[in-house]
TrEMBL record:
Residue stretches making up the C2 domain: 638-763
Localization in the cell: Cleavage furrow; Cytoplasm; Membrane
Membrane topology field: Peripheral membrane protein
Gene from which this protein is expressed: PLCD3
Acidic residues composition bias: residue spans: 493-507
BP GO terms, sorted: intracellular signal transduction; lipid catabolic process
Domain PI-PLC Y-box: 522-638
Presence of keyword Ribonucleoprotein: no
Function in brief: Hydrolyzes the phosphatidylinositol 4,5-bisphosphate (PIP2) to generate 2 second messenger molecules diacylglycerol (DAG) and inositol 1,4,5-trisphosphate (IP3). DAG mediates the activation of protein kinase C (PKC), while IP3 releases Ca(2+) from intracellular stores. Essential for trophoblast and placental development. May participate in cytokinesis by hydrolyzing PIP2 at the cleavage furrow. Regulates neurite outgrowth through the inhibition of RhoA/Rho kinase signaling.
Protein name as catalogued: Phosphoinositide phospholipase C
């Protein structure tokens, strides 16, 4: 951490000026004399990745003229070239824009596909051989990049090269990511590319990495590293400056507290630290294993000692993160009935934008599956030529073929998770096209599709996610034995339409109330998810068939939560309930899913295409258990005779104390404006039952996004900790307008580790902001146990 005479700020603690440092063990390694780092610093990153001699990467460094495909007539040739940092690709634009608008980052790539494996290339790339084509699919909302290379070999070079770069990036530890990050900006700040840094260039570097340092202190630090006394830093002098810049005094203080005078941690001393952290597996063998894993100095490792660098490596690793590493794989019981799980669910899955005029796309389904979604919606309407289509009816949204969506489901449903996928059909088709839908589902999905009960002895009992691995369920209307008004089964949207009838005229009401016919072929596929209307809650939930699924608008669900409380919780302990946003949300905005989870609703459907805190909560809820899309509900939401009511959760029984210490390498919000430095503050939000919901924040630190320091404590009293999500948010403080979002991380309280922890921040779209982190101390005190 850089300390010194920062600009004064009445709201922030001013860190002290450090004593002169006598070259500690380097956080950043010295460049080897043979790496050419003093001549071409950009290639240093690729060398450290072991890819400078890779033929595919070398070809990408030279660049390729690739044809970008947007439509049937829009095919433009553009130059694409891998940057020397190995982390970004520069591309040509017809109209030059700001530098940041001419690159994309390797870490933001979701996948690279060969051939005609995207909707765009299938529709518009027919004139080009599949062997020449590739698609770069990005995380978040960025559109796919569909490209055509001059030759099949050149296409393969980009596919292989990007795949290698992504694999190497994923394998990097936090220290390597930090090294890449700082050298990327170092290369940019070296204005004349002479591999020497003047004080002016050093000041430029500081602004790029989001810190506004006092000129006097910055020059003092510069001169301490300028051993050649020529007003230029080069080679080892640059590395020394970076080491000083990246110092972490708060980590050094913790390390020295346990290491004593010899400034190294023995295995027993490390064990003492682990015990104070509250680690479950705090044993001497465990401490010895950590030394062997994270210590960088071989001599220290041989003597079972950990240096400051090894300690920092450990705390920056996944084992030192706030998220319990044991919860990142599937660790929950997956053999309970489907109704006992929260299930990641999408609303209007086909949309990539708003529900009024946005485009529909099969790519939206692929992206939802990539985010762990297990329940997707298909809004089915009559199409030309006997082929049903999917779109948001009576709007300007574009249409896609039902069969194309089913093919996308077949190809991508199980790429991230092996657990079952539910297709929620909103059916507006006549009998003929319903039969066509059933035919497509059977022929395209084959054995994946559940067409009959797994257990003939208990055909209505819900199976478990484990029993349904690799299988696809259809949620749809089931033909009743005898049709009556009371037994009439409605589609999802009809539930909402009934609520809106009060505001409509008689003619419109009559039109909406037209009875719908159901095709026997489609009805037969609704095995375990039979759409039914929830008029009232059954006094005895055990009498209701568990295979029935109710679909409620957020308004109706909130009404039940408010008026029925425990009865609704009991209903959801046995049957599935799907909740969806009100149709009045024209811009595809979301509602908070937490309120629905509090009552045990399983299928809380959100617009995955709309980022915001609601989707952050959804990502946080499903972050654990291997991101498989299924989370076992707390015991109080699974017991058939539970007395739990989210409106009356009882007295506080858990105290959460979070000390916000520091942040590191926060992203610059305006990359094109050097003088724009963030004034960060940290807000901790608690999302749970209404009595637990709270938010508290630190003061802001003026003009320092590089290594701000707070040292402030935030405390929360919790009544239903088993339902709590904790959201850490960093914002850029503004006195005259709403604060700007910087980054966030959300996770369940029961996956939050205690002690000193790093929180690795994410962007609005959920992409990593590495190496940006928060450093906090967490303490959880429970008056009685919870699961």
């Amino acid at each position: 951490m850089l300390c010194g005479r920062w600009r004064s700020c009445r709201h922030a603690e001013e860190p002290p000026v450090p004593a002169q440092v006598a070259a500690p063990v380097a956080l950043l390694p010295q460049p080897a004399p043979s790496d050419g780092g003093t001549k071409r610093p950009g290639l240093r990153a690729l060398k450290k990745m072991g890819l400078t001699e890779d033929e595919d990467v070398r070809a990408m460094l030279q660049g390729s003229r690739l044809r970008k495909i947007r439509s049937r007539t829009w095919h433009k040739e553009r130059l694409y070239r891998l940057q020397e940092d190995g982390l970004s690709v520069w591309f040509q634009r017809r109209i030059p824009r700001a530098p940041s608008q001419h690159i994309f980052f390797v870490q933001h790539i979701e996948t690279v596909r060969e051939g005609h494996q995207s909707e765009g290339l299938r529709r518009f790339g027919g004139a080009f051989a599949p062997a020449h084509c590739l698609t770069i699919a990005f995380k978040g909302r960025r559109k796919n990049l569909d490209l055509v290379a001059p030759t099949a070999e050149e296409a393969q070079r980009w596919v292989r090269g990007l795949t290698k770069l992504r694999a190497r990036l994923d394998a990097m530890n936090q220290r390597e990511r930090l090294d890449h990050w700082i050298h990327f900006y170092l290369h940019r700040a070296d204005s004349n590319q002479d591999s020497k840094m003047s004080f002016k260039e050093i000041k430029s570097l500081l602004r790029m990495v989001n810190v506004d340092m006092n000129d006097m202190y910055a020059y003092h630090l510069f001169k301490e590293c300028d051993h050649s006394n020529n007003e230029r830093l080069e080679g080892a002098e640059i590395e020394e400056f970076l080491r000083r810049l990246l110092k972490r005094p708060e980590l050094e203080e913790i390390f020295h507290r346990y290491s004593g005078e010899d400034r190294v941690l023995s295995a027993p001393e490390l064990l003492e630290f682990l015990e104070d952290q509250g680690e479950d597996a705090a044993t001497l063998p465990r401490a010895q294993q950590l030394i062997q894993t994270y210590e960088l100095n071989e001599t220290a490792k041989q003597h079972e000692l950990m240096t400051l660098d090894g300690f920092m490596m450990y705390l920056l690793s996944p084992e030192g993160a706030a998220l319990d590493r044991a919860h990142t794989c599937v660790f929950q019981d997956m053999d309970q009935p489907l109704a006992h799980y929260f299930i990641s669910s999408s609303h209007n899955t086909y949309l990539t934008d708003s529900q009024i005029g946005g485009p529909s796309s099969t790519e939206a389904y692929i992206r939802a599956f990539a985010q762990g979604c297990r329940c997707v919606e298909l809004d089915c309407w009559e199409g030309p030529g006997g082929e049903p289509v999917i779109y948001h009816g009576h709007t300007l949204t574009s249409k896609i073929l039902f069969r194309d969506v089913v093919q996308a489901v077949r190809d991508h449903a199980f790429t991230l998770s092996p657990y079952p996928v539910i297709l929620s059909l909103e059916n507006h088709c006549g009998l003929e096209q319903q039969a066509a839908m059933a035919r497509h589902l059977r022929t395209i999905l084959g054995d994946m599709l559940v067409t009959q009960a797994l257990d003939s002895q208990s055909p209505e009992a819900l199976p478990s996610p484990e029993q349904l691995k690799g299988r696809i369920l259809v949620k749809g209307k089931k033909l009743p034995a005898a049709r009556s008004e009371e037994g009439r089964i409605l589609s999802d949207r009809e539930e909402e339409e009934e609520e809106e009838e009060e505001e409509e005229g008689v003619e419109a009401t009559e039109q909406r109330q037209r009875a719908k016919q159901i095709s026997p072929e489609l009805s037969a596929l609704a095995v375990y998810c039979r759409a039914t209307r929830l008029r009232t809650l059954c006094p005895d939930p055990a009498q209701a068939p568990p295979c029935q699924v109710s679909s409620l608008s957020e308004r109706k669900a909130k009404k039940l939560i408010r008026e029925a409380g425990n009865s609704f919780v009991r209903h959801n302990a046995r049957q599935l309930t799907r909740v969806y946003p009100l149709g009045l949300r024209m811009n595809s905005a979301n509602y908070s899913p937490q309120e629905m989870w509090n009552s045990g609703c399983q299928l809380v459907a959100l617009n995955f295409q709309t980022p915001g805190y609601e989707m952050d909560l959804n990502a946080g809820r499903f972050l654990i258990n291997g991101q498989c899309g299924y989370i076992l509900k707390p015991t109080c939401l699974r017991q058939p005779d539970t007395t739990f009511d989210p409106e009356y959760p009882g007295p506080p029984r858990t105290t959460l104390t979070i000390q916000v210490l520091t942040a590191q390498q926060l992203p610059k919000l305006n990359a094109e404006k050097p003088s724009s430095i963030v004034d960060p503050l940290v807000r901790v939000e608690i999302h749970g039952v209404p009595a637990d919901c709270a938010r508290k924040e630190t003061d802001y630190v003026l003009n320092n996004g590089f290594n701000p320091r707070w040292g402030q404590t935030l405390q929360f009293q919790l009544r239903a900790p088993e339902l709590v999500l904790v959201r850490f948010v960093v914002e850029d403080y503004d006195t005259t307008s709403p604060n700007d979002f910087v980054g966030q991380f959300t996770l369940p309280l029961n996956s939050l580790k205690q002690g000193y922890r790093h929180i690795h921040l994410l962007s609005k779209d959920g992409a990593s902001l590495s190496p940006a982190t928060l450093f906090v101390h967490i303490r959880i005190q429970s008056s009685r146990g919870w699961d």
